[in-house]
Write a structure and sequence with these properties.
The chain has about 190 residues and is α/β, with parallel strands linked by helices. Helix content is about 35%, strand content about 10%. A 4-stranded parallel beta sheet has the order 3-4-6-5. It has a two-stranded antiparallel ribbon with strand order 1-2.
């Protein structure tokens, strides 16, 4: 393994959101995608783990409701998994929430800033041409990009800026994400 890689675990970007959801929705589980988060930004192992886990869960219970989440490199892994989740897997995934997405693409209806506004609607991530959220997933997604976060807003920042950590400390973002996921879970139940 790359010595500069960080083995992923619970995402601090979703800690408060998930805590809020689990308090309000009984029977929920959190699965932490397994992959090394490295400087080379290769999230292929994370993508494969997401696809494997979703298909495994759906194979065991086709009625399962799934929410996918990704912060930074985890958002790339999630975006890259979406085209592979078709049929019953697509139906089981009720929502996708991304924070600081390197594959952030402009003008998607799911694009919002830290406060739910449109200041980053046209932002392009530093991997914005890689793929991002496929159009058929936009209605199921919330792609949050903080203005000036060079990871998802390359016109107003370069790389990992201080704004890239704003999601963690923003009560508005944490609340917005939790409300979005709870709404998607209620619609899917």
């Amino acid at each position: 393994m790359n010595k500069l890689a960080q083995v992923t675990g619970p995402s601090i970007g979703f800690k408060n959101m998930n805590s809020n959801i689990l308090k309000q929705k009984n029977g929920g589980n959190v699965y932490n995608v397994v992959y090394p988060a490295a400087f080379d930004q290769n999230s292929d192992l994370g993508t494969a783990d997401i696809v494997r886990k979703v298909k495994e869960v759906v194979g065991q219970n086709p009625a399962e409701c799934i929410i996918l989440q990704g912060y930074s490199q985890g958002a790339s892994a999630t975006c890259d998994a979406l085209p592979e989740l078709t049929g019953p897997a697509f139906d089981a995934v009720k929502g996708v929430v991304l924070l600081g997405n390197p594959e952030h693409r402009p003008d998607l209806t799911c694009n919002v800033d830290l406060y739910g506004g449109k200041s980053t609607r046209k932002a392009v991530g530093f991997f914005g041409t890689k793929g991002g959220i496929p159009s058929e997933w936009a209605s199921k997604s919330l792609d949050v990009c903080n203005f000036g976060d060079g990871v998802c807003d390359s016109a107003h920042g370069i790389g990992i800026t201080l704004q890239h950590f704003g999601y963690i400390f923003s009560p508005q973002t944490q609340s917005m994400g939790a409300k979005f996921m709870l709404k998607k879970l209620a619609l899917g139940a």
